Backbone:
């Protein structure tokens, strides 16, 4: 096996320089964000971006999010209509990804967009990662730093468990604040389409721009990452379980106790924060079935249930 990945704390003064050096050399680096850890490459480097797909085992038709330092960097690569500009000003830096028309000849390789004519842009809240993008002076393409289809990483150790020795550097920013991936919306003229629910809710978006995002109805796969089976542990997963059978590993919520509890006080943000780490822990502790208590379908609970349905979907 290849030698181990180096892990540097985000507060280590070497972290930024080392990370930028690797990115410039076309290497992959794992970086923290407020949602989940990303597996990053210089978005303008075709070969480095290809390497993301092979490292994750990601289908080549599943485009990547470009992480930018702010609205000005985004505008170098995508067309930003006024509605999108308002969203950027309101929610960036933060967990809202915008899918916008790609500017041709801006230098984004086809592998980032999977040859679509749109590009997903996001400005992460985590300061070290924005500083890395600023110092690199180009966006970083970064999907979640997990093998395709598996549980997303919420700490440096998760990344290490998945990719140790396969990437030269992991920047350790501690446990991620939010714990589930960003909300993704496509913005077209005056319409907003929700492609993936996250911690930024449609109501919060409506409060800012007066337009309620509509939910995307699948006809073709516009966001191929939205495949039915995803975030999957090894164990089978059963949802909305109110009376767990003996022998199953039960993850409770609120008053409903279990082997673990996503949030004893019934706080949905806390449940999102704990979701992936508890799924991973459950998976390590049982080879049987993981059952999960009902999670209220409101606010960030909608995003939690979206991830849980994919975790429970028949594996392909
Ligand atoms: O919170 C996040 O968004 C994390 C952190 C690392 O930033 N990233 C993340 O990336 O979740 P990933 O690759 O796991 O999910 C990206 C999703 C996929 O479902 C992909 O299909 C969708 O974004 N996507 C990317 N570009 C798109 C585009 N042009 N049109 C529609 N969907 C797109
Ligand atoms: Mg992912």
Residues:
């Amino acid at each position: 096996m290849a030698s181990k990945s180096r892990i540097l704390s985000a507060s280590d003064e070497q972290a930024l320089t080392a990370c930028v050096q690797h990115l410039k050399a076309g290497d992959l680096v794992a970086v923290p964000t407020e949602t989940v850890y990303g597996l990053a490459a210089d978005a303008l480097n075709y070969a480095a971006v290809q390497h993301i797909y092979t490292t994750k085992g990601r289908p080549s038709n599943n485009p990547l999010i470009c992480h930018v330092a702010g609205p000005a960097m985004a505008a170098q690569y995508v067309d930003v209509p006024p509605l999108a500009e308002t969203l950027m000003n309101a929610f960036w830096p933060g967990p809202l990804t915008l899918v916008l028309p790609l500017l041709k000849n801006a230098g984004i390789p086809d592998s980032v967009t999977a040859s679509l004519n749109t590009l997903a842009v996001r400005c992460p809240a985590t300061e070290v990662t924005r500083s890395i993008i600023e110092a690199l002076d180009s966006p970083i393409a970064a999907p979640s730093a997990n093998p395709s289809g598996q549980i997303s990483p919420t700490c440096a150790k998760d990344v290490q468990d998945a990719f140790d020795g396969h990437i030269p550097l992991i920047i350790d920013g501690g446990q991620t604040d939010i714990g589930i991936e960003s909300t993704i919306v496509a913005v077209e003229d005056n319409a907003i389409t929700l492609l993936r629910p996250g911690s930024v809710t449609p109501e919060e978006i409506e409060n800012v721009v007066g337009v309620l995002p509509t939910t995307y109805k699948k006809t073709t796969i516009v966001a191929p990452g939205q495949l039915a089976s995803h975030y999957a542990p090894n164990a089978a997963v059963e949802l909305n379980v109110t009376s767990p059978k003996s022998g199953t590993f039960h993850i409770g919520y609120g008053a409903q106790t279990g082997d673990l509890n996503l949030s004893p006080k019934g706080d949905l943000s806390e449940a999102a924060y704990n979701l992936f780490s508890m799924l991973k822990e459950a998976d390590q502790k049982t080879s049987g079935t993981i059952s999960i208590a009902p999670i209220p379908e409101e606010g960030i609970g909608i995003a939690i249930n979206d991830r849980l349905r994919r975790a429970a979907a028949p594996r392909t």
